[in-house]
Write a structure and sequence with these properties.
Blueprint (H helix, E strand, L loop, with lengths): L10 H11 L3 E2 L1 E6 L5 E6 L2 E6 L2 E5 L12 H9 L1 E6 L5 H7 L9 H5 L3 E2 L8 E2 L4 E13 L6 E13 L4 E2 L2 E2 L1 H4 L2 E3 L5 E3 L24 H4 L6 H7 L8 H13 L9 H10 L2 H10 L4 H17 L3 H11 L4
Amino acid sequence: MKSIIPSEISVPEVQRLLQGGVAPRPIALVSTISKNGINNLSPFSFYNVFGANPPIIAFSPSRRGKDASLKDTYWNLVETKECVVNSVTYSMVEQVSLASTEYESEVDEFIKSGLTPIESDLVKPKRVKESPFQMECKLLEIRSFGEGGASANIAICQVLKFHVAEDLFVNGIIHPNRIDLVARMSADFYCRANGEAIFEVEKPIKKKGIGYDQLPEFIKESFVFSANNLGKFANVERIPDENEVNEFIQKVKSETLSEYEISEEAFYRYKRLGNFRYMLRCALDLNLSDIQKKYLLELTAKLALEKNDTDFAWKTALYSNQFN
């Protein structure tokens, strides 16, 4: 590990470290309005949500790195105490990047970026029509930390009203593939939260997992299972007993499978197809050494875990332990 003391390197170097290591960061596209009625639109990636009762978000209109001057967003917030925070999607990311240009104070970034201003219901700053998720907010406070270049100003805001596109919802949840958000990484890099980049991790909210320390040693010592696999194994409330495992294996052996082949080549084809049930049956039916059979069974359990069938994975892994 490379150990670095922030005070011993330059501010730009500290900034690059933070932007590279604290990522991906959601982007707040913040709309404000000056006391003279001039619209301002600027993205901020030092941003997140901090509570729901009341709904609180915060972002940092930090001082400019080159001369420590304060940005228009900062002054508008101080003067009007209102803003709209719009989420940034893939379809608008280039326009949002354009809005980050350091235009003069009298320039309207809606016009420069080509994004569409629409009236808000409760605050004066405009919403961004192209964004499918908009929050009308009031400023609660701004806290400042330092007066040098790139010093933080944290704007803490309360959400007064949400505007959300109806087609984002699947079963009452905003689905990541529907909203198609982007996030900031380091330098010119962005991240798109869509497709294969999206995965699920079951939260241990409604149950108490057995924990890593309660895993059988043969599972912890396996070279097949990754640390993520072990974490998933440990997030169950109980380990299946021997009778449950035997009943499971007998059921799998008795199943009639269509277009089923018994060969090692077929096993790995089923693996590529993500069919862990056929993998298990194939591993059971193949005439292999104990070491080979154990390996194929553990590969099967691993895929079942990754496909979120933890019960199947546990029973397969436990059964593999008899082949040593």
